[in-house]
Amino acid sequence: MLQGFLGRKIGMTQVFRDDGRVVPVTIIEAGPCLVTQIKTTETDGYEAVQLGFLEAKKPNKPMRGHMRSGQVSRYLREVKADDVNEFRVGQSISVDIFEPGDRVDLIGRSKGRGFAGVMKRHGFHGGPRTHGQSDRARAPGSIGGGTTPGRVYKGMKMAGHMGDRRITAKGLEVIRVDPERNLLMVKGGVPGATNGLLQIRRAPRHRLATARNQ
């Protein structure tokens, strides 16, 4: 069984459970994914299955050579599998490997916000709006003492580049699976923008067991 899959974010909506409760869900176009390479311990030192997702519009020569057995995929990612011998190069895998009730981790890239100040980036409250503080409203304030420590500590929360980084949403519940339209609906929001690539990974069982015990 594959431990991961590929898809892209379509958007959000809401669905009704059988008991009438409304659940916010993210719709993901998951697959079909093409097996483009099998990694084995004998040849690569580890075992994994390389999956391709979406057709490349302008594939270059190395891409065509690597995927000469079938469609040239736009995205390539390696995922773990219980037994790599169950798969073959050129095999197409559908979203029906998931079932409602499964728990998955969604890995994506957050939206880029450019250069942001401390209020937007870290939630600072800003300075006082009175007592002559005319230009300190959105300033960070003190970043350290002059004599002691006489420097700025590493990791200080300051203005800088915000977003555009790898984010993992853990333990999301699969609400519905639609193999005919290659759709996967998971509870809640997931990182990334519309049409952004998502890696779907089965949540580790030990983490789910710990969460239930708590």
Please describe what this structure looks like.
The protein has 214 residues and is mainly beta. Helices cover 11% and strands 39% of the residues. It has four helices and twelve strands. The chain has helices at 41-44, 61-66, 118-122, 205-213; strands at 4-16, 22-30, 33-39, 48-55, 73-79, 92-93, 103-109, 114-116, 160-162, 166-178, 183-187, 197-202. The strands form three sheets. A six-stranded antiparallel barrel has the order 1-2-11-10-7-12. A hairpin with a 5-residue loop joins strand 1 (4-16) and strand 2. The longest helix has 9 residues, at 205-213. The two termini are 29 Å apart. The mean pLDDT is 89.
Q: Report how far apart the termini are.
A: 29 Å
> Judging from the principal axes of the Cα atoms, what is the shape?
extended
Extract low-pLDDT stretches.
Answer: none
Question: How many strand elements?
Answer: 12
What portion of residues is helical?
A: 10-25%
Number of alpha- plus pi-helical segments: 4
| Rg from Cα | 23 Å
Assembly of the depicted chains: single chain
Major β-sheet, in short?
A: 6 strands, antiparallel, barrel
- H/E element sequence: EEEHEHEEEEHEEEEH
% residues in beta strands: 35-45%
Q: What average pLDDT do the residues reach?
A: 89
Judged by helices, strands and strand pairing, the structural class is mainly beta
Question: Reading side by side through the largest sheet, how are the strands ordered?
Answer: 1-2-11-10-7-12
